[in-house]
Design brief:
transcription (chains A, B, C, D); 207 residues; DNA-binding; TetR/AcrR family transcriptional regulator (chains A, B, C, D); 2 domains; homotetramer; HTH_TetR (chains A, B, C, D); disordered N terminus; Tetracycline Repressor, domain 2
DNA sequence: GTTTAACCGAGACGGTACGTCCAGTCTTATT
DNA sequence: AATAAGACTGGACGTACCGTCTCGGTTAAAC
């Protein structure tokens, strides 16, 4: 998760690595306290004990800063082998839901996605920093299920299935948590996973 | 859509109904041209040929105004009887996807949902004006499928199933369209519907 | 002190005389509480228990309203015969100073004069309602002094002398009270009167 | 004239001295064109080619800005030795009258004095920036007249005489020019000076 | 005793300016 | 060349009044 792709010179005083970390941490703290729309660059700079100039030297805009600040949280997502596809899916859904419960994620994720609908570079940054980070879990889960024999091998699977599954899982959880604003509790996870697995099984039976 | 629930007096000059319509129309136009984050109250007022105070007399904030301006678009969603549950689901998915392709919806929907994570009244307004408007389609579709015998009657269905199905459908379509930023084309609709129906059938087989 | 020169019809419901009095009283109260620059038409209307429309039907602007509200205070100025020119002048200076100490006069008088430098109708209104009201005291005082034999008869006096005396008296008192912001106490009145009388005597000696 | 007594830091970008001058110049231009009551901060900022925030960083209010903009004009007042007390007084009266004829002074002076009746800091600013600047001319004139032997030495003069003379001169001229709205022409100056000198002589004769 | 025309209150209307806030840039001196 | 500090331009914010207008209703003189 590079902090900034802005080109750099070799000579002169090097940038403070400490500042980077402090800024991202301050950004998350500000998101928790103020939410996305009331977060200001000046406030973040103040919290980080850094001048505004230092922020702008690293990030071109508030949106990119927030994406980077939040992206690191998605690194926590893991897929330990829980022994069955059902357990793996339930695990990832629970993890993702827990991430969305965090106030910094909740307030920031939808906001930057909204901004990205009119900002191609931002969309790309989100794709790389956040979306792909999640999608790898789906790939890993499928591969593991195939190894276990719970799913047919790739040869018999239509292309784009991973993408479909990803949109269904991430979409359903986000919608439940943020739009419907209902808790993603154990019962919901169980039923959603059952629905998804049933669909996958049916799809596997008749491609 | 009611413009504002603010209590009104009986005396004095009545509010101009024309202004209400002009403002909402101007808001949609501004969303298309500028997107959510660059839309300003002053600009909307200018487009509507109305003073800024007239906007603030009716809507407390940009967010509430945008919700009302966009909400009316969700009234277009319908569920004509297409003869089978498959066809009904595909129809509603296509309609919803088409709505999300509209620039005013695309830029506004995620933004107001993001804001609503820190604004309870806004969340309620969204729930009433937008979410419930969509959810009724799920209820109607299920009732129709039960009448056709495609789904078991309510007695055998767990509570919350409608909500689950709604989150899956709406979530998947939104995620595909706005997060993954991929087209919701016929092929995707077909495969998503198949997945969902397979899951529903499996769930019905073993409650 | 006509309330308003705005042309009127003969028929229809006549204007409420009570409203006029209430508005002027409310204006003075608002001047005392808020001062000239924070006085608003809406506030005056509210205090008077009257609609804003009613104000504007009678006075074209805040300035004219304030002039009328304050002008009536200048009617209190009187020139009882105190037996000598010295006593008469000291009396009028003290009266005028007392008037300028009143908060409504203090805050309003300079303000409307300032406005009148760019508003000919307002200047005329001030001249008629306020300036001429004061000037008559000078005329009366001079006539009385001539009757007493303290001053030579008009035949020996240069034209414009009354105006000069008036500007000196009113100007000095206003400047002392509002610009220098020092009290117009008995000592100052005595010395100022002595100065003025000395000047008048010298002028009379050698026209 | 000092632009602002607000304490300043040592670090950071220093304030632009050019901006200060441009703002004061723009303020005077706006006073001439628009008068005091129609002068707006935004307009001044625009004329000065400066952002509104830059104005507010230096002056807390329109009133203080106008005082500073006008104060510099009072520096022009001088008292060259014209050889006699009469000539000196006539000279200063003419100068002061000429200053009051300038449109920026005419419209601004009474207005800020009016405001100062309810604003102690503003009154102090006016006293320092404007009143004291004028008063020194009276002191200088008296000293010179005493040196010439036209007036008795200080030992025989009551305290506060300078203040009295100042209020009489400034008050009479202001009243003539702004309230009576009559020209301060050579004839008026001659007669006013004669009146004042006569008074002074009489006062000197019998303290 | 009805017209009837002007009044009245209330409050919405189009405007203008306010004073504040923030984005993003620039200018210092310092490290 | 990066840094902290803070001034800079520009522009939107939400509020306050201005003076006008539209309501439903009232009032007293003229018919």
């Amino acid at each position: 998760m590079c902090s900034a792709p802005i080109p750099r010179s070799r000579t002169g005083r090097p940038r403070s690595a400490r500042a980077d970390a402090a800024i991202l941490e301050a950004t998350r703290a500000a998101l928790v306290e103020l939410g996305w729309s009331k977060l200001t660059m000046g406030d973040v700079a103040g919290r980080a004990g850094v001048a505004k100039t230092t922020l702008y030297r690293r990030w071109a805009s508030k949106n990119e800063l927030v994406v980077d600040a939040v992206a690191v949280l998605f690194d926590e997502l893991e897929l330990p082998d829980r022994g069955s596809l059902t357990a793996d899916i339930e695990g990832v859904v629970r993890q993702f839901a827990a991430l969305l419960e965090r106030p910094e994620t909740k307030t920031a994720l939808m906001a930057v996605i909204a901004e990205s609908t009119r900002d191609e570079p931002l969309r790309e940054r989100i794709r790389v920093s956040i979306v792909e980070r999640q999608k790898r879990l789906v790939l890993e889960g499928r591969r593991r299920a195939q190894a276990r024999g719970e799913l047919p091998t790739t040869s018999g699977t239509a292309p784009g299935t991973d993408d479909l599954i990803f949109d269904v899982i991430a979409g359903a959880v986000v919608h439940r948590a943020l739009v419907s604003a209902e808790p993603v509790d154990a019962e919901w996870v169980r039923r959603f996973t059952a629905l998804l697995l049933g669909g996958l099984a049916a799809a596997a039976a008749q491609p």
